[in-house]
Amino acid sequence: METKAAASKAAPAKPGRVEMRDIVKCFPGVRANSQVCFDVSPGEVHALLGENGAGKSTLMRQLYGMYQPDEGEILIDGLPRSFRSPADAIRAGIGMIHQHFMLVPTLTVAQNIALGERSGRWPLADTKRVVARVRDLAEEYGLAVDLDAYVWQLSVGEQQRVEIVKALYKGAGLIILDEPTAVLTPQEVDDLFVTFRRMVAEGHSLIFISHKLGEVMAIADRVTVLRDGQAVGSRMISETNRDELVHMMVGREIKQLEPRALEAGASRLRIQGLRALGDRGTEALCGIDLEVRSGEIVGIAGVSGNGQRELAECLAGMRAASAGTVCLNGRDIGAASLNERVDAGMAYVPEERMRDGAIGEFSVKENVFLHDHAARRFRRGIFMKARAMNEHAAELVREFSVKTPSLDTPLKTLSGGNIQKLILARELSRSPALIVAAQPTRGVDVGSTWYIHQCLLQQREAGTGVLLISEDLDEIRALSDRIAVIYEGVIVGIVERDSASVQEIGLMMSGVGA
Amino acid sequence: MKRPELDWGKIALNVLLPVAGVIAALCVGAVMLLALKVNPITAYSALFNGAMGSTFGLTQTLVKATPLLLVGSGICIAFRANVINIGGEGQIIVGALMGAWVPLTFHYWPGWALIPATCVMGFLAGAAWGFIPGILKARLRVNEILSTIMMNAIALQLMNLLLQGPLMDPEGIARGTFLAQSAQLPKQAWLARLLPPTLLHSGAIIAVVLALLAYILLWKTTIGYSIRAVGLNPSASRYSGIRVPFYEALSLTLAGGFSGLAGAIEVIGVQHRLMDGLTSGYGFTGIVAALLGGLHPLGLIPASVVFGGLLVGADKMQRAVQVPSSLVTAILGIIVLFVSGAALWSRRWSAKRLARQRLGGGA
Question: Which domains does chain A have, with CATH numbers?
Fold first, then answer.
């Protein structure tokens, strides 16, 4: 941590590695960046924080030569430069790691790194030279990569390391990372941050694009917040806190969620001895016992892949249970179809929202009626009642403040947060007795996350039972009345909100604590 | 929530792209004609004159467009459920069998009963021919492309069998010609001619009405909604309680019904008897027309006229400049390549435009 402290003290004094002055970039209909100033000092991690759509990626794509600014200038090491393409930026020592990696799956790691290199043995690729140099780099920065492996064999985390090595190999002194943690497991994020620290210690500068506050606080030296295309301000991490950053990001106070104390009521969901097979045919649920009562949020905490997905699918009726009972409002629904469960009062927010929860090519309006198009009030015989549908969809969009240009806009053009709000609106509009929400805020921006949490709390107050399945422990702890920890298909422990410490839950999640 | 303004740019693109595709394909065809040492201008003017230059040509174009429109509408429905129906030929044949069998058997019925009954039976026969691969896909996940092709072979041999046997024209037997064709249908079963002496018959109107019905089914009813949902995202459909296998089977059954109706109408509207070679490849050309029409029953109406015209013009061109009419088949294929290629390109292009706008948002 000495490097971090040293860098933050030294940063403002040194001349900037990069300075972007008064950048303006417009696209048809949007001012993506307006008068943005941004600078990076040598040896610092500068986070660029903002919600989806705030203009972070646009700003960085201009630095990387993918776009040219309409106004303003970019200075590299004090000299004004204009990049016509990423190749120019790479030559100036700038590298960018995109959210979607730019690797060729059928080539080896070494071949991928050698791509686009001038080869000494033209027209043959000179991977030998690459290999030697990359070995040194990988060792120097603690980036374990198997150079002979094919990219398709690598995990996402490993592919990211290859991208980083590639950028370093090309001589990048400044690396832009666009939401690098979005695809990683918590352990991989820790490893990535270790790498960051080594790179910074070697004098590299990093720009870390993110909308996750926790990560920004953990790794950055300095943070600049963008909102609606404008730079709201920059802070040293040591001189700011979460609340201030949230406020800068969202533009208004986001109140801490404070669930009111409620007496839990009648049983909504009772699961006893539930067993089910996973996709590989091995047992994924090995006897789950759980109850969710009215006016209660029960959180399922656990490391990904311990049976959460199978549990959610069993409850939705999409996966057959091999043993055990599931009762909704006291009625056994174990053998019921999805439609019967919905009629019995279940609402379901699936984990994979674009695969299972919505149809991207369908319009906003059509997505509202994925289940209810067959409901009596929206049809006459086989004909859909266009007006009733329009009114209902418009009402939901308004009520849940889904931001969409129109009801006929294809859903896939909306942001993740707005898509999720629409799915939630659809599910809640049926006034369910029980909500099963799987990863309801994964990949969703801060404002929408807050909104979705509010909705769940309101449902709780209205007497709905909520089963919240999430890999985000902060979310579970903020919302749940009781936290059930799942490990290898079994609930290993249930703790009350107030009596739970993170350490305790963490131990149970790793199968030790129970 | 105001309604979005009509995006004229997009509409123009949707119209211009197919037109440009047709023109580009004709240019490639011109090169092929030159290779055959034929003046492409002479050839093409023969083609256009044949298809549109006279009342007779124009009505022939519409006569050919009729089965294409019917088959294509069914293809659109199946395609929307992401089910690919290659079985148009077989479905036309079984529909045509009904088109001959019903009037020949119930020859004492009046026309007002016989014609609707024939159409309904044609539809049902085709629907049954679509239902078999449909249910096989729904229940056993049998690939519908293979099963519909095999159903074509079965239908063809079934027709051959019947034409050699029970359906063979008694007159042919009496005269000893033994032609593989049925007796002529009773006159009251013939569809009305719209513009005598041309062959244009009221089946063209039925086809347009059916295309409109297909459009209404797909976009105004819960059935069509479910079919489209299943085609776009079966997983989300399942999670919404939509019975995915049911709609897959249904769409293929409906597609079969449309083709079967095309077969029955071809018999009672044009041939007035069942004979070999009656399908003229409509089952396949209908797929192509559906693609050109953007898999939309309303887009299909002009598209099937274009293809009808090309089929008619091809004959004329063959006679005028002595090129094989298979050259026109090749040109039809090239048109599809160009148009579907252009559609792909335009989708990419608009996706890119969209992405750029969203990046404008900064995501």
Answer: 2-93+173-250 (3.40.50.300), 106-170 (no CATH), 267-509 (3.40.50.300)
